[in-house]
Amino acid sequence: MPNPIPLRIAGSGIALPRLRRDNDWFDQRFARPAGWTARHVGIGSRPIASEGETSASLAADAVRQALAAAGWQDDDFEVLISACGVGQQALPCTAALIHRQLGLDHSGIGAFDINASCLSFPVALDMAASALACGRYRRAVIVSSEIASAGLNWDDPDTAPLFGDGAAAVAIEAGDGRSQLLAAHLQTWSAGVEHCRVRAGGTAVRIDDGIEAYRAAARFEMDGAAVYRLAAQKLPGFIAELSTRAGIEPARLGALVPHQASAKALKHIQRVLRLPPGLLVNIIEHYGNQMSASIPTALHLAISDGRIRRGDTIALVGTGAGLSAGGVVLRY
């Protein structure tokens, strides 16, 4: 069993777009009876970014909240890690854009991205914890910011109503041993690479391939049934392994904070793991699937409303495109 790493979450924050899109808009768009979208996706409303709201601007707002909650100054950390599934642009990295949005232009504070799709936050937390443990950094900020709406096909009733936009950040530091990262685990089954994807934005589909081909490749594509089948098959074994590494069964956790993939996926986790009522942090009804931002958003809300308290052992888990399963267990 890996040794625990002293790690303290000193503060957290979230930022949401101004606009909320409710289900009536989707019911009308898809010419469905009132209440169809709510029954179809199990979501009431979701935040959607408007003109002028960018991944970097939302991230910066969330970071400022996390710094204020931690009692840190604006530059009282050594590294800024952007943990997003979809960056604001191809170059430079999104972390640099957030860095400038925070007014850190000439600070010299390091900034880089970690991309593990919807699992970017727990993967970044694991990587940052290791860097803190070896003395590379004293303090770090991790932020996940997503504008999923930018790539959605608004004529697809299966995906368009499922996603929401937003950002969440945490300020972390090497702890005194009372707060710890107890275990981390990541597995990938690349048989699922085509189940959930955006083909443009890299070098595979290029503007020289034609504007229509590029436009089509820039839209989010998902075979929801295939994703669900593979995740349902693999997730129980993954969580069993993570639990073994941490030395605690899921039902004995103080809270389990999952990626808010879908209402159906959350019900499956609750049922398969036989979790007591209230242990699973479920925010999807009012936030939708915020991709990489969903886990830290749910974490922040659970801390803010007192569901997670100092000394609690919690797990952050989920699945992401690839297909991957990942998570960490923390003593908060």
Automatic annotation (TrEMBL):
Database matches in InterPro entries: ACP_syn_III_C, ACP_syn_III_N, Thiolase-like
SUPFAM superfamilies the UniProt entry points to: Thiolase-like
Gene3D superfamilies from the UniProt entry: 3.40.47.10
UniProt superkingdom: Bacteria
Listed CDD domains: KAS_III (cd00830)
Sections of the chain in a coiled coil: none
Keywords tagged on the record: Acyltransferase, Transferase
GO MF terms held by the record: 3-oxoacyl-[acyl-carrier-protein] synthase activity
Domain Beta-ketoacyl-[acyl-carrier-protein] synthase III C-terminal intervals: 245-332
Identification of the protein by name: 3-oxoacyl-ACP synthase
